[in-house]
Amino acid sequence: MEQQIDLSKYRNVLTRKHQMIRMLWSVVWTIFARPLPRSIGSGWKRFLLRLFGAKLASTAIVYSSAKIYYPANLIMDEYSCLASGVDCYNVALVKIGANTTVSQGAYLCTASHDISDSLNPLVTAPIIVKDQAWIATDAFVGMGVTVGQGAVIGARACVFKDVEPWTVVGGNPAKFIKKRVIS
Q: Which PROSITE patterns match (predicted)?
């Protein structure tokens, strides 16, 4: 039996003000940060992000090709990094701990839709990445996930549940691989 769902009544819950800030932010980042090579001009990029509400340590690095959806929902601690091509879809808070790297092409996604509601309303939850963690290349981290201190998310892993401190996870969905031991 096929069920019909009418999505014509879906309404975006984001305010006009929010949408205008997002549009202005996209223009500012595209013109004043994107043309800079990789990690050049870090102070300038931090200035632009702070101008739009981000809370960044003076040693945080955001590469020019990283995409930040809404800077006011971004916190980055000391020596944290969003590398080339990171997509930070931070409709809700994304907090990156100290000495933490989010590698090339990783996707941090704080929003989805409630598929059990016929209007598919937007649902959000923060992503918290604790100190000394590493999210490797092309990994996906879903809404509501906390990545524990020192944890490693392997390349191309898809994480939908919290990751325990000092563990290595990988795969789709991500599963425990081993404890992380630093010699």
A: HEXAPEP_TRANSFERASES (PS00101)
CA atoms within 13 A on the CB side of 125: 12
Closest by CA to 127, choosing from 173, 96, 149, is 96
**Domain spans of the chain, in order of start:** 16-179
The one-letter amino acid at 179: K
The CA R_g of the chain, rounded to the nearest whole Å, is 17
- Residue 85 and residue 107 in contact, taking contact as beta carbons nearer than 8 Å: no
CB 165, CB 146: distance < 8 Å: no
Superfamily of domain 16-179: Hexapeptide repeat proteins (2.160.10.10)
Tokens of 167: 């563990």
Rounded mean pLDDT for each run of 10 residues along the chain, 183 residues in total: 69 80 96 90 97 98 97 98 98 98 98 90 96 98 98 98 98 98 92
The catalytic residue positions are: 113
What pTM was estimated for this model as a whole? 0.92
Task: Determine the angle formed by the axes of helices 16-32 and 42-51, rounding to 10 degrees.
Answer: 170
Prior bond of 37 cis (ω within 30°):
no
